Amino acid sequence: MNFASARIITDHVDRLVEFYEKITGVSAQRPAPVFAEFVLPSCTLAIAHAQTAQLFGPGSVEAGSNRTVILEFRVDDIEAEFRRLQPWVDDWVLDPTTMPWGNRSMLFRDPDGNLLNFFEPVSKEAKRRFSSRENLGR
């Protein structure tokens, strides 16, 4: 089994698409005005308008209500990414910090309040752990 995608439901598709284009450096594919996809090597990040939630059943999805999921992006140089993102990120949660499990992480919120973690494995153990994943989506 392969993890294929994550989808953010929003009332502001264009605003989120613009934000994610800036932070990922990837242009969104827009098969419909209410839907966009960022096809990354490791998986796809989709953004869909709240109108599309009806397709999944009444009450199944509520735009802007998530405070339990963190979207994580592995990067090559966390300090460079921190500097690069300064003009576009308004809500920093954590400046670059080395975590107990060996990743150097920075956390911030997208314009809808979803939490993002950009991280770089820095300890010997973290680098070893991720080395087996090198060919999986990078």
From TrEMBL:
VOC domain mapped to chain residues:
2-121
Quote the InterPro entries the UniProt record gives: Glyas_Bleomycin-R_OHBP_Dase, Glyas_Fos-R_dOase_dom, VOC_core
**Membrane spanning residue stretches:** none
Q: Which Pfam families match?
A: Glyoxalase (PF00903)
Record-given protein name: VOC family protein
